[in-house]
What does this fold into?
Amino acid sequence: KAGVTQTPRYLIKTRGQQVTLSCSPISGHRSVSWYQQTPGQGLQFLFEYFSETQRNKGNFPGRFSGRQFSNSRSEMNVSTLELGDSALYLCASSLGSNSYNEQFFGPGTRLTVL
Amino acid sequence: GENVEQHPSTLSVQEGDSAVIKCTYSDSASNYFPWYKQELGKGPQLIIDIRSNVGEKKDQRIAVTLNKTAKHFSLHITETQPEDSAVYFCAATGANSKLTFGKGITLSVRP
It folds into this structure.
């Protein structure tokens, strides 16, 4: 069974630009969550989507947005990039939205903002 | 919301020794506590989890203990091996059903 895939793996952008990251969950998984990982803050929850609906949202500004498609694939978008947005962005999929469901993480997209 | 703290931030042990990583949480309604291991260049992977109705759970060389009264839980790794070297994250699910992670601890196992 294929794992969670994220594209691209690496990305370099400049301040003010916008970026879209993609996540393909494990086949059959309907929940996708996004996290931002930085050395000082660990994993910070961005949002969770289940059946194309946002179920939960973390404490990030409105520049961070996401969506989920009917095939459960998900994208997250960051507009007006800032230097502080440089991080590893992780996507995790699970069977359902219940937190008891094991979350399977992808390898992440490393975003560098110059 | 939930706040999860993890101590220490780094831990170095000799191969064969035991390692203990401790986490505390703030939300007394939290009921699910997973531990994740992240190797270099990979995403975190679940290694063990425990629910609030259980005090201890063991899986081969790893075990997790939960003290609901004190609101802390610990990961125990026995007979450590070099391949146990990684970043370990604890997490807790609060009343809002969101997973809140600790900041991670880097475990180094010296051969």
Remarks:
- The interface with chain B takes residues 4, 33, 35, 40-45, 48, 56, 58, 90, 92, 97-100, 102-108 of chain A (CB under 8 Å).
- The longest strand of chain A covers residues 42-50.
